Amino acid sequence: MPPTSSRLRVTQVSTYRDPAHRAPAELLRAWRDFGASAAAAQRAGVDMTVVQASWTEAVHTIGGVSCQFVELPAFRDQIAATRPDVIHWQGLIYPSELRALARQLPSVPIVAQDHGSGVPGRFWRRWFHGWGFSPLAGVMFTATDQALAFKAAGVLRADLPVFEVVEGSTPFAPGDVATARRATGIDGDPCLLWVGNLDANKDPLMVLDAVSAVAAGVPGVRLWMCYRFAPLLEQVRARIAGDPAIRDRVRLVGEVAYPGIEEHFRAADFLVQASHKEGSGYGVIEALACGTTPLVTDIPSFRTITGQGSAGAVVPTGDSTAMARVIREWAGRDRAELRTRARHHFEQALSFDAIGRQMVAAYRRLGRVA
Fold first, then answer.
1. pLDDT band at 6 (very low <50, low <70, confident <90, very high)
2. Contact, 92 vs 133, CB < 8 A?
3. Which of 366, 249, 343 has the alpha carbon at shortest distance from 293?
4. Which of 37, 102, 168, 208 is a plausible cystine mate for 135, CB 3.0–4.6 Å?
5. Is 252 inside any structural domain?
């Protein structure tokens, strides 16, 4: 049946059920930004509905969007009842369920959005995912290059259209730097912030090497490391303790609960991240939202998030010399101008409204109404 208006009807779908069996109202308190991107897409010109797999039934309205929590036995029928022109499938997960939905609604294009899924390692799992995802009409990644490995492995069709849509955003905003520094106790000239686990992928030792290299020429530099999980904690501690150049310049803060981390972003001059791979990069997005410039590694998602390095700097993974060079260079730039530029980039490319526009552009490419 053709749509009755010029606005596409889009149903955003998630088959993930909370393993803790929390009720929808409790989930909405925990999933802070649930429905925010859908509401932004609706503001950008489509009619959105969210259907979320749940252990109990409920309906909540978020930003004018009906968010329907549905038990699995009725899940596909509820999606069909929304009469979608396009289905937005959250995550490159549950391939058999996606294929079953495509069989039930064969004329409705389905676009899946990656949320940091890795390419399955085993051949049979790659085959299974490729079989399940074969009906897809499109796929969304934070950066289009991220699709290459999935296509090479046969998980996604070689000819499948890829849309660049940032995975998520944040309500964080800039604040007074001096106030934030008093509130958090962090400082430095420049003040560097690390927000991420202390693990091999995040590569904290690379950043410590870089800070050590710049300490003599930039004596005011300070690095504050916020993290939740820390499999490399002992190596990090040993690296700091064994190097006089950073022993008094690096502090291990540990976990900072949300939303307290916002004040840390506001207090910092630069965010430093050394990841080797990421599905997105929420810490980088949150930094830019607060006006904090990211100095990060040159991986696909970080390139997209920083506007190909226009709102920060990107350096090769594992290259502490390059990271040291950009810390020295950017430490000498006008901090107020950098904060203004970072926030402007966030508003234009990374805010919920920006993501809503990106989503709508993909929906219109796939849907039956231009």
1. confident
2. yes
3. 343
4. 102
5. yes
Q: Are residues 143 and 269 in the same domain?
A: no
- pLDDT confidence tier of residue 1, bands split at 50, 70 and 90: very low
Within a domain: 2: no
Domain region containing 306: 177-350
pTM for the model? 0.94
For residues 95 and 92, what is the distance between their CA atoms, to the nearest angstrom? 7
Q: Is residue 251 part of a domain?
A: yes
Maximum distance among all Cα pairs of the chain, rounded to whole angstroms: 71
Pure H helices in 31-94: 36-43, 75-81
pLDDT at 259 over 60: yes
pLDDT tens digits, 204-232 = 999 999 999 999 999 999 999 999 999 99
Residues in a beta bridge with 191? 222
Which DSSP state fits 351?
S
- Residue pLDDT, tens place only, 17-48: 999 999 999 999 999 899 999 999 999 999 99
Tell the residue number behind the tokens 């291990």, with chain if given: 252
Are 343 and 218 part of one and the same domain?
yes
Number of domains observed in the structure of the chain: 2
Q: 1 lies in a domain?
A: no
Report d(CA 304, CA 196) in Å as an integer. 19
Q: Which two tokens stand for residue 28?
A: 């909405």
| CA 263 and chain centroid, separation | 20
Residue type, 15: T
The CATH number for 60's domain is 3.40.50.2000
Report whether 150 contacts 118 (CB < 8 A). no
Contact 284, 306 (CB under 8 A): yes
Helix, strand, coil fractions of the chain, as percent rounded to 5:
40, 20, 40
Residues 140-191 pLDDT 10s: 999 999 999 999 999 999 999 999 999 999 999 999 999 999 999 999 999 9
